[in-house]
Amino acid sequence: MNFIKRILTTTSVGLLGGAVLATPADAGADSTQEHVREIRIIVQGGYQPDRIEIVHGEQVQLRFLRKESGSCTREVVFPSLGIRKELPEGKPVVIQLPALEVGEYEFQCGMDMIKGKLVVRAES
After folding, report:
1. Which residues pair with 84 in a beta bridge?
2. CA angle 28-59-40, nearest 5°?
3. pLDDT tens digits, the chain, 124 residues: what are they?
4. Dihedral angle at the C-alpha atoms of 79, 119, 96, 25, nearest 10 degrees?
5. What is the rounded distance in angstroms from the CA atom of residue 105 to the CA atom of residue 3?
6. What's the structural domain count of the chain?
7. CATH at residue 55
8. Ramachandran quadrant class, 15 (left: phi over 0; alpha: psi -120 to 50; beta: rest)
9. Domain range for residue 7?
10. Do 20 and 43 belong to one domain?
């Protein structure tokens, strides 16, 4: 019985020590990361939402989730940004957007039938 207590005590101390050692590194990592806004887009008979507005200078990532199996929405394309991504059914796909100038950027399915628009507004 004493042997088991020693093993449990040693394991607990080791785990606690690891947690204590990990805390400063984690805290430092959080303070250096900037906020990234994530916008979720459902792909099902179209893009929902199909119009997205962001502010110039804002860091944005788009999370696409395709909820259908049709071949039309198998990929998403941002022609003016040179971005083309496969959208497997039921699996989220994240697109990290580069810094964008004020303006409008279309996105579409690979067949150019289903469309959406990303609008970058000037800061107020």
Report:
1. 77
2. 105
3. 454 444 444 444 444 443 333 333 333 444 445 799 999 999 999 999 999 999 999 999 999 999 999 999 999 999 999 999 999 999 999 999 999 999 999 999 999 999 999 999 998 8
4. 170
5. 67
6. 2
7. 2.60.40.420
8. alpha
9. 1-33
10. no
Identity of the amino acid at 32:
T
| Residue pair 87/93 in contact by the 8 Å Cβ criterion | yes
Contact call for residues 108 and 76 (beta carbons, < 8 A): yes
- Extract the tokens encoding 3: 């042997």
The CA distance from 47 to 10, in Å, is 54
Which uninterrupted H or E stretch holds 48?
strand 47-48
How far apart are the C-alpha atoms of 43 and 115, rounded to whole Å?
Answer: 11
- CA-based radius of gyration for the chain: 22
Same domain assignment for residues 10 and 41 = no
Span between the terminal Cα atoms of the chain, in Å: 69
Q: Which two tokens stand for residue 13?
A: 């101390």
